[in-house]
Amino acid sequence: MNALDSAIRDLVVANRILANERVLDAYGHVSVRHPRNRDRYLISCSRSPELVEDGDIMEFHLDGTPVGGDKRNPYLERFIHGGIYERRPDVQAVVHSHAEDVLPFSITPTPLRPVLHSSGIIGASVPVWDIADRFGDATTLLVVNMPQGRDLAERLSDGRVVLMRGHGFAATGRSLSEVVRVSVNMPTNARVLHKAMQMGEVRGLSAGEVDRRLAMNPDGPEFYRAWEYWATRAGCGHMLAPREKAAKKMKKGGKNRKLSGRR
Amino acid sequence: MNALDSAIRDLVVANRILANERVLDAYGHVSVRHPRNRDRYLISCSRSPELVEDGDIMEFHLDGTPVGGDKRNPYLERFIHGGIYERRPDVQAVVHSHAEDVLPFSITPTPLRPVLHSSGIIGASVPVWDIADRFGDATTLLVVNMPQGRDLAERLSDGRVVLMRGHGFAATGRSLSEVVRVSVNMPTNARVLHKAMQMGEVRGLSAGEVDRRLAMNPDGPEFYRAWEYWATRAGCGHMLAPREKAAKKMKKGGKNRKLSGRR
Amino acid sequence: MNALDSAIRDLVVANRILANERVLDAYGHVSVRHPRNRDRYLISCSRSPELVEDGDIMEFHLDGTPVGGDKRNPYLERFIHGGIYERRPDVQAVVHSHAEDVLPFSITPTPLRPVLHSSGIIGASVPVWDIADRFGDATTLLVVNMPQGRDLAERLSDGRVVLMRGHGFAATGRSLSEVVRVSVNMPTNARVLHKAMQMGEVRGLSAGEVDRRLAMNPDGPEFYRAWEYWATRAGCGHMLAPREKAAKKMKKGGKNRKLSGRR
Amino acid sequence: MNALDSAIRDLVVANRILANERVLDAYGHVSVRHPRNRDRYLISCSRSPELVEDGDIMEFHLDGTPVGGDKRNPYLERFIHGGIYERRPDVQAVVHSHAEDVLPFSITPTPLRPVLHSSGIIGASVPVWDIADRFGDATTLLVVNMPQGRDLAERLSDGRVVLMRGHGFAATGRSLSEVVRVSVNMPTNARVLHKAMQMGEVRGLSAGEVDRRLAMNPDGPEFYRAWEYWATRAGCGHMLAPREKAAKKMKKGGKNRKLSGRR
Questions:
Q1: Rounded to whole angstroms, how far apart are CA atoms D13 and C257?
Q2: Disulfide: which of B71, C221, D93, D169 matches D179 by Cβ 3.0-4.6 Å?
Q3: Which residues, numbered 111 to 130 in chain B, qualify as contacts with chain A under a Cβ-Cβ cut-off of 8 Å?
Q4: Strands A40-44 and A57-61
Q5: Where are the beta strands (DSSP E) in C98-242?
Q6: How many CB atoms lie within 10 A of CB B105?
Q7: Using CB atoms, which residue from A4, A47, A103 is nearest to B261?
C-alpha cells in the first residue's frame, strides 16, 4: 500500500474513531497533510464523520480550493485546516471539534490546562480564539474563509490546541494518531478540571511534566494500543495496517505457552 | 409526493429524531401546520414519539378538536401547539419537550441565553412561563385547554422558545427542520451555560451574533447535513426525500476520481 | 388471567422496567402486595431485576418468612417491604432502590423536594432515615430484620418515599404502576434540583400543586402511556395485558382514515 | 478445573467486567496472585481488557520480569502490581484504573472517603500518591519500574486503595471478586461525594460502619450476586464456575412451585 492509500485509510479510521468517541458528531472534521505534497491536504467531502468512506476523501490546496475542480460539496470550515497547515510546517493532521465538555473553557476566563498524565500534550495552557476580535460582532462564529483561518492559526501559534469561543476547538498533531489522541483526551481533561475546580486548589501537571510529554515519540508502541482499541470499538479493526495486525498476532501469542503449574 | 404526504413523512422523521436525540421521551410531541390549511395542524395521536408511524398522524383544528370526529386518543397537551399556531402565523412547526437539562433554567431566576454558535436561534434570552401566574396554585402544570395554550403563546410572544416552569419548553420553527434543530440544540446550550456559570463570567453570543443567526436561511444546505445525520442515526435514513438522496449521491461522488499521487 | 397471575406478570414487567430505566441494578427490588391476602406480598427470589422471570416470584408473610417453606434464596433486605406493608394498609407496591442521583440528598441536610410536574407525587419533601439513630454506629446500613424494617416504615410515616442515608430510597405506591412511576421520576427530580441549587433560588412545586398531583387517579389513561413506553423499551411490550393491547390498537387507529387534502 | 485454570478464568472474567463497567478502558489492568506460587502473579499481555482472552494471560515474577522468557508485549505499568504484591502478603488481586470520576480527588486536597454502604471497603479515607515527591518533576506520571511500584505500595500502606495524582488509582483485594467490587464502587462513591459536597455538610460512613464493612466475608453469598450480574452484563455468564451455576439453578427454583392462590 503506497503512502497516499495509507494516508486515506488512516484518515477514514480517524473519522470513525472521532465519531465513535463522540469528539465529532454531525459537525466537525479531521484532515491529514498530503504525504507527497506539503501544499495540499486530504479531507472528506461534507458528510458526517461516522459515515465517511474511502471514496469520500477529497484533496485541497491550502487555500481551500479543491484540486482538479472536484465538484463535491466541501466542508464549509475547511479553512481551519488550510490556515493551520499554511502556518505550521510541523503539523501533519488537524481536527476541528465541537465537543461539548471543552466549551465552558471557551466562554469563561478560566484557562484550560492539563491535569491528567495523558493531556500534557495539550501544552501548559490552551489559548482561546474569539472571532469577534478581528471580524466583528456579527459573524456566525464559523471559519468560512482564509483570513479567518489564518487568524485562528495565528492564535494557535506554536501550540497543539486552540479553543474557539462558543464554538469548539482545533487540535493539531505530528500524525493522525497524535491528533486523534489529543482530541479524545481534551474533553476528559476538561471534565476532570471542571469538577476539581469545585473542590479546592487544583494541582495540574508541572512544566517539567508537560515538557516530558511533549518530548515523547508520538507514534511509540504504547500509543498504538489506544489507536487499536479505538479503531476496534469503532468497527474499523479490520482496516488496521498489516504491521499493526502482526503486532496483534504477537500479542495474542502462545496459546500453547505453558504457564507454570498448568496441566 | 404531494405536500401533505411530504409533511406527514417529515413529521414522522422529526418524531424519531427527537426521540433518538433524547429531546422527547414518553412525553412531549412535535407538530407541523397543515400545508394546505393554515387553520389546522398535524400531530400524532397519543403515543411515544419513538413509535410514531405514518398512520398515527391526526389532523386538528387550532382549538384542539380533531378534524372529522377522529376518535383516536389525542395528546392531552395539544393546546400548546394550537395556541402557538393561532398567535403566530410565521410558525410552521412546534415542539413540546421535557428535556431535563433545560429544566433548572425554568425554576430559577437565571436566564437561559445562547452561548454557542448553534443556539443563536433561540434569541437573546428565553422567557419563562409560569402557569400559576394566571391559573393559580393548584394545577398539574400541564397545558390542558386553549386558555392555557393562549397564555403560553402570549408569553412566547415573538420569540423562538419559551420555558415552562417545572415542566419543559415549547419551541417553534419556520419549518420542521428548524424546530428540530432548535430543540436539539437547547439542552446542549443549557448544559454548557450551567457549567460555565460555575467557572467565572460567561461570554455569551452578542446581539449582533444572535441577529446574524436569526437571519440565516433555516433550510440552507449546511442545515441539511444535520437533518440527514440525525435521521440516519434514528434509523430513518431511508425515509429521506429523493432530492436529499440525490444530494447524498453527489456527496458520495467520484469513487473513481483520481486524487493526485494515487495509482 | 386471574388476579394473582396478573400481579405476577405486572411484577415481572416492573422488574424489567426498573432495571432498564436504571433505577435498579444488581441490587434493589420491587414487590407487590398479594391480591388475595393482605398479609402477604410477592417478590422475586434473590436475583438481579433485569433477569427476573415469572418462575422467580416468591410469596412472603409480612415478617419476611417465606410461605410454605420455599427454600429459594430470598432478598436480604425484604424486611423493607414487609415493614412498610405492615404499617401502611394503603400501600400495594414497594420499591427499594440504590439509584445514585438521589444519594447526595441522603447524606446532606438539603431536603429533596419536588420541582417538576411529574414529581409532585413524592410529597412536599422526603424524610431521611438514618439506621444509626436507633441501631448504632456499626451496622452495614442494610435493612436485615423486621425491627429495622419497622423503624424505616415509621420514618416513612404517611409519605410516598423515604431516603435511606448513604444507601438509597424506599418508595411506595397504590399500585405497581404508581410505584414504578415514582421511582423513575425521583432521580430526574434529584438531578434537576441539584443543578438548580447552584443557579439561584429554586421555585419548587407549591403545596397546592403537590396536593393536586396526589389527588390524581394513579391509574388514569395518561399514566398508561408511560407504563407502555417503559415496558416496550424494556422488551416487555408483548407482556402487556390484553386490555392495554386493545387500547394500543385503537391508538394505531385508522390507517385508512383520510386526512383532509390527502389523495 | 484446577486452581490455576480457575484463576485464569476468573481473571478473564474480571477483565471483561471491569471493561464493561467502564472502570478500565484502553488502559488499566487487573492481576491475580499465582494460586500456587506467592512470588508470582498473573496478568494479561498488553491489550485492552475488553479483548482479553484465556491465551493472553502471562505470568510474572514480582519484579516484573516474565517467567520463562515469555516474549509477548507486557503492560508497561505492571510494576504497580508487583510492588503491591511484594509489600502486602494479604493481597491476592490488584486493579489499576484511570476511571475518570475518581481523578478530581487525586488533584485536590479533598480526601476521598466512603459515603455509601458499599464503599466502606475503601477504608476511612484514601491516600494520594504523587510520583513527583520522590521521582521529581519530569516524569510521565506512569509507574514504569520497581522503585516507583514500591514507592506507590508504601503510600498504599495497609489500605485497600491509593489514588495516583493526575493518573488514576490502584485497588487491592483479598480476592479478584473483592478487588472488582472495590473498583466498581469507587467511581460511584466519588460522584456522589462530589455532588454532596456542593449541597452542605456531608455525613459519611462512621468509623464503626467502615470497620463493620471491612469485617465482612469478601466472598459471601450477597457478593456473588454482583459478580454474577456484572459477568452476565459483560457477556461472560457462560464462564461462571459450575458451583455458581448450581446456585443459579436453585435460585431459578420451582417453576412448578404453587404460590398460594394460583390455579
A1: 55
A2: D93
A3: 115-117, 120
A4: antiparallel
A5: 128-129, 161-164, 168-173
A6: 27
A7: A4
The rounded distance, in Å, linking the Cα atoms of B209 and B213 is: 6
Q: What does the block give as the cell for D213?
A: 464493612
The grid cell for A124 is 501548559
DSSP 8-state secondary structure symbol assigned to residue D111: P
One digit per residue, the tens of pLDDT, for chain D of length 263 reads: 799 999 999 999 999 999 999 999 878 999 999 999 999 999 999 988 988 999 999 999 999 999 999 999 999 999 999 999 999 999 999 999 999 999 999 999 999 999 999 999 998 889 999 999 999 999 999 999 999 999 999 999 999 999 999 999 999 999 999 999 999 999 999 999 999 999 999 999 999 999 999 888 888 877 887 888 899 889 998 988 765 444 444 444 444 345 665 43
What is the gyration radius of the CA atoms in chain A, in angstroms?
19
Distance CA B86, CA B246 (A): 36
- Beta carbons of C48 and D192 less than 8 Å apart: no
Task: Give helix D79-87 / helix D146-156 axis angle, nearest 10°.
Answer: 50
Percent above pLDDT 70 for chain B: 92
Q: Which residues pair with B41 in a beta bridge?
A: B33, B60
3-state helix, strand, coil in chain A (%, to 5): 45, 15, 40
Counts of helices then strands in chain B (DSSP H, E): 8, 7
Q: What cell numbers appear for B37 in the block? A: 390549511
Q: Count of CB contacts below 8 A, A vs B?
A: 137
Q: Name the 3-class secondary structure at A194.
A: helix
Q: Centre a 10 Å sphere on the Cβ of residue D233 and count the other Cβ atoms it contains.
A: 17
The residue ranges of DSSP E strands in chain C, in sequence order, are 29-33, 40-44, 57-61, 93-97, 128-129, 161-164, 168-173
Tens digits of per-residue pLDDT, B82-111? 999 999 999 999 999 999 999 999 999 999
Please give the C-alpha separations between residue D106 and each of A117, C7, D171, D201, D243, in angstroms, as whole numbers: 12, 49, 14, 21, 40
The model's pLDDT over B17-69, given as tens digits with 9 standing for 90+, comes to: 999 999 998 789 999 999 999 999 999 999 889 889 999 999 999 999 999 99
What is the distance between the alpha carbons of residues B175 and B108, in angstroms, rounded to a whole number?
A: 31
Q: Cα dihedral angle (A164, A169, A175, A181), rounded to 10 degrees? A: 150
Q: For residue B214, how many other CB atoms are within 10 A of its CB?
A: 14
Cα–Cα dist B96/D237, whole Å: 43
Residues B173 and B121: their CA atoms lie apart, in Å, by: 10
How far is A213 from chain B, CA to nearest CA, in Å?
27
Which residue type is seen at A51?
L
The residues near A145 (Cβ < 8 Å, ≥ 6 apart) are: A64, A79
The grid coordinates listed for D109 are 486536597
| A116 residue type, one letter | L
| ipTM passes above 0.85 | yes
**Degrees (nearest 5) of the Cα angle D120, D126, D130?**
160
- Which three three-digit cell numbers place residue B144? 390542558
B89: cell is 402565523
**Which of these is catalytic: D53, D77, D154, D228?**
D77
Cell of B128: 419563562
* Nearest residue to D88 via CA among D178, D168, D30, D157: D157
Q: Reduce the DSSP state of residue D163 to 3 states and report it.
A: strand
Give CA–CA dist A41/A34, Å, rounded.
5
pLDDT at C123: 87
Residues 6+ apart with CB under 8 A from A238: none
